[in-house]
Amino acid sequence: MILVRNIRLPLSAGEPQAFEKALREARIPRAKVQHLGVAKLSVDARRGQPKLVYTVAVTLKNEAEEPAFAGASANVSLHSRTDFRVQRGTQKLPHRPVVCGLGPAGLFAALLLARQGYRPIVLERGPALDERVQAVEHFSATGELDPNANIQFGEGGAGTFSDGKLTTRIGDELCGLVTEVFLQHGAPAEIAWKQKPHVGTDLLRGVITSIRKEIESLGGEVHFNTALTGLEQKNGHITGIFTTDGSFACEALVFAVGHSARDTFAMLMDSGLVLECKPFSVGFRAEHLQSEIEKSLYHEAAGHPALPRGEYQLSQHVGERCVYTFCMCPGGQVVASASEEGRVVTNGMSYHARSGKNANAAVVVSVNGTDFANDPRQAIAFQRELEAKAYAAGHAAGPYAAPAENIRSFLEGQGQLHIGSVEPTYDRGVTAADLGSLLPAELADTLRAGLRAYEHKIAGYTAPDAILTGLETRTSSPVRLKREENFECTQLAGLYPCGEGAGYAGGIMSAAVDGLRVARAIISRYAPAEG
Fold first, then answer.
1. pTM above 0.70, yes or no
2. CATH topology assigned to domain 2-78
3. Rounded to an integer, what distance in angstroms lies between the CA atom of residue 104 and that of residue 127?
4. Exposure string over 74-99, b if 16+ CB within 10 A, otherwise e
5. 91-276+481-527, what's its fold?
6. What does the pLDDT look like over 336-387, one tens digit per residue?
7. Strand, helix or coil for residue 71
8. What residues have CB less than 8 Å from 427, skipping those under 6 apart?
């Protein structure tokens, strides 16, 4: 694929003009082109009349010719496809590998193992996706929570009920393979070239189910409603596992349980493994009118049909901490994401069209091990305490209703909620609360300082109608299970910590890539089990 950058056009122009200018810039004859797409579209409003600035992705009918056009100008470059190969190892693996968790990390680890003939056994504590969607919708409608079937647990993991963002900062060549797999299983073609690709929770569900079916078609087994409850070990090596559905002999276990499996983390610590604290963040979901965000970002160009939904990413250092936005969902909604009874957790999601009235994003402040005496049990207890406070603050309005407050009220410590142009989208309902009182005073004051700084970056960010809904506590895992360069657990051979829950990823793409890395390590070491 060829990328042609810095194609600048007036607002009256559109994609056809951008494509023609890109082909001229790269000196590519139209007859050679297989496909043209917009990889990036931004607005330059710095000097008078705003300009649309395109990056155009070009694929040729004969891909072998693409390198010859790269470098036609400083704006033309080649984007290479990953050539992924893995050599099987020779060490005997007595039993099939087991993958614990069917979120992005476990899903992609299992897929690669299945494609290489290892017929993995996959354990998922929650149900298959259709049943999981029913459980989530039932909770949203009634407030009756299933602790094993919710936005955190079940086929696809927490990422299933999100925006389906595939953006990442990790820069690993395996990102290309993840994108290819998504495309093979029905994701929108645009994710191959867009700079900020997203699938949307509506389309992502079908993609995940399709990948799981490929795993099964290649001899893998998926055991739903099956949680890991214990490890069997001998001479420092894992020899088996215990689950809610019986025991399995196992010498290679991919541990990809996600960031919310607190009972599983406790089991590891009770069995003698030492977990480390890692940084995570806590805060709220901020909601604004999507149209107002776009006015601030795009200025006079706001509302132009060629523009993407406006997105933002903000950060502000306040003393030793950082206040930042996370998982911004244009045209999305705030969702009830609890996985434990009597606790409120918020998250954000959007569908592929991103057509909702509101924009939402997590506004969070960082915490780390020093806040908890480097004790992972204290870090987990801190999350749970905040979630219990949020439940208590919202409960008067109904089970799992959330506390909410206008941003300006939060800045002034008033605990007031006025619903004007921004109507809260949290699906279990909201009630007015003093959000600052739910957090340690230092963290609340740090968030206030960050929000005041955001007003200088996006005009209207602290507008009177803007709303905060709390609490956001599951930004990432609070713990890490240490592993070596070969991806094996430092303390227990045969155990492979993987993905976000083990402390090695953040988001769909990085978790999927980590799953591929771990699976590659197992394949490179072992030959498939016989029989």
1. yes
2. Alpha-Beta Plaits (3.30.70)
3. 15
4. eebbebeeeeeeeeeeeeebeebbbb
5. FAD/NAD(P)-binding domain (3.50.50)
6. 999 999 999 999 999 999 999 999 999 999 999 999 999 999 999 999 999 9
7. coil
8. 140, 333, 334, 335, 336
